[in-house]
Design a protein that fits this description.
This protein is 43% helix and 19% strand. It has 197 residues and is α/β, with parallel strands linked by helices. The protein has 2 domains: 11-73, no CATH class; 77-186, Nucleotidyltransferase, domain 5 (2-Layer Sandwich), CATH 3.30.420. It has a 5-stranded mixed beta sheet with strand order 5-4-3-6-7. Strand 4 and strand 5 (108-113) form a beta hairpin. The protein starts with a strand and ends in an 8-residue tail after the last helix.
Length: 197
């Protein structure tokens, strides 16, 4: 990388460095390729295993740095969230329940709340009044937190819980019709008798 010097005494910047836009960001400590490789590693393996693989590849990084890197890479702008996904997840080794908030239009994490409670969710939502649609699970915490913090938002079930609800109802329906289904399966399984003439 080349350095340039300014001869004008009134210039505030005396030294200028050459920009390498295709290689690294301004003031970056790593190249874009290295940053992208570490993001893929932490997405696939997580913190501890990702750090071990990175070390084998010659990229020395600690697990916490990997996790922080991915949090920053996928953090959305909180102010412009219109469609929000809300779910619970386990924090740390103790699996302490927390709340994850995702911008479903940009597919990026907006925030991680340190607890999964109606109060913390309602407080966060009240600070973000632009939310129009919220996808959630079936828990009363998400339902009540959304109702209290974002009453203007339409609440919908997320895809996984929608399919789970459908599977449970279908299982219940077929369970009630079990004798009829067994009888129908028995008739289909018997060989037909040959007609003698």
């Amino acid at each position: 990388m080349r350095k340039f010097f300014c001869d004008v005494p009134s210039c505030e910047r005396r030294v200028f460095a050459e920009r390498l836009e295709d290689v690294a960001r301004v003031c970056a400590r790593a190249t874009d390729r290295q940053r992208e490789a570490l993001e893929w590693i932490v997405l696939a393996l997580g913190g501890q295993a990702g750090a071990r693989l990175a070390h084998e590849l010659g990229l020395i990084v600690c697990p916490d740095t990997l996790l922080n890197r991915i949090r920053e890479a996928f953090r959305a702008d909180e102010e412009n969230v219109r469609v929000l996904g809300v779910d619970d997840f386990g924090l740390g080794r103790e699996n302490t329940p927390g709340t994850i908030l995702v911008d479903l239009e940009r597919h990026k994490v907006v925030d991680l709340l340190g607890e999964h409670s109606v109060e913390s969710l309602a407080k966060w939502l009240s600070e973000h009044p632009k939310i129009e649609l919220a996808s959630r699970d079936r828990s009363h915490i998400c339902r009540e937190g959304l109702s209290a913090g974002a009453p203007q938002a339409t609440q919908v079930a997320d895809r996984w819980h929608l399919l789970r609800n459908l599977a449970e109802r279908l299982d219940e329906f077929l369970g009630q019709r079990r004798p009829i289904l067994k009888a129908a399966a028995g008739r289909e399984g018997r060989p037909q008798q040959q007609v003698q003439g």
